[in-house]
Fold this sequence. Notes:
By secondary structure, the chain is mostly helical. The chain contains 15 helices and no strands.
Amino acid sequence: MSGRWPPAASAVCSFGVQALLVVQGVLIARSLGPAARGDLGWIQWAPPLVTVIAFFGLTQAIPALSGGRPERREAYFWTGITIALSLALVLAGVTALIFFTWRLPEPQIVALGILFLLSSPLEVVFAFPRDYLVAEHDFQRHDLLKLLLGAMTCGAIAMLAAWHAVSVASIVCAMLAASALMGVVTWFLIPRRLLHRQFATPAETKQLLHFGLLCLGAGFAGVVQTRLLQLQVGTAFGPIGLGLFIVAMTWGGLGGAVWQVVQVRFYPALAAAVVRGEGRKMFRRAFQIGLALTAVAIVAGYAITPSVFPLLMGEKYAGGIELARAFAIAAPFQAFGTFMGFCIRAMGFPGRALLSDYIGAGMTVLAAFVIIRCGLTENALAAATGVGGLASIVIAGTVGFRKA
């Protein structure tokens, strides 16, 4: 089944996942006002951090380590999911205790924030076996399960909107219900042999954790950057400012689906070109395409924002048009920087790509801190993401052209 699943089909699924996220974001934005959207942003702040730490890069480590030892694949899986689930439960518990110490004016928001921490262990339950399918080269089921999760969550929120029952609490419950149902579906579809538990030896576990730690950084930098940026905005400008900021950031990231498709197409081609000694030529082509996409995205996004943004997100967010325009300029630079890091990973320089990720994220957070300290508006904060993106482009681009 997986052998007949071409890369183009994976690209279509990636595009579909991104499109569903956009639809979900639009539905939520239109149904909630900026203040309620800011409250939801606060509730959703911690779980991605908990999840990325709990996963510890293990879903990337398992395919790599079991590639030459397929007979140990199940042992790596059960050891990995046990570690990840334990970490998720412990970190969610510690975060819940921290939430209890926060003095927010609305206790309901704190309660919902604690409840939504359940999404982290739930994500381990469904995403770990789903991502394990990559080690089995079963890309068809892997891609379709990712698409199904987006469809279930988006469908649940669409039904709430149709019933005029959208609230912060109902969205939280809908997302948790979709995650729980996704866990049942995923475990029903995984290979039956995976149900027979076995565990890695201490030496294998040490190797798994070491490799996972190296993989952890790639996703960790982006998650930390976004969360710290939102924390600074929420603290400085309150729920309404945070709500406008999140929706404007969503608008700026609409081109993410295009970058997903480009990355899927370029990764194997660039890796193969390096083997043939044509890495520099292929990297130059990737850079040119990335530059062209960035220019088109900036011009188009800046031009259509005043008319399309309030139409798409609702008149409640008309006050965020200038912020959305700022993100329309800054977000493509960040996407281009991420793409460049992706390219040098394909060329065999994961350490330098990781350096590029962390410097870019650090520059973004530092720029945001300086902007807030200087008393500038939320609009100027969008520039922070562009600064980080430019740093990543310079570092990754230098590595690509010099090492290819």
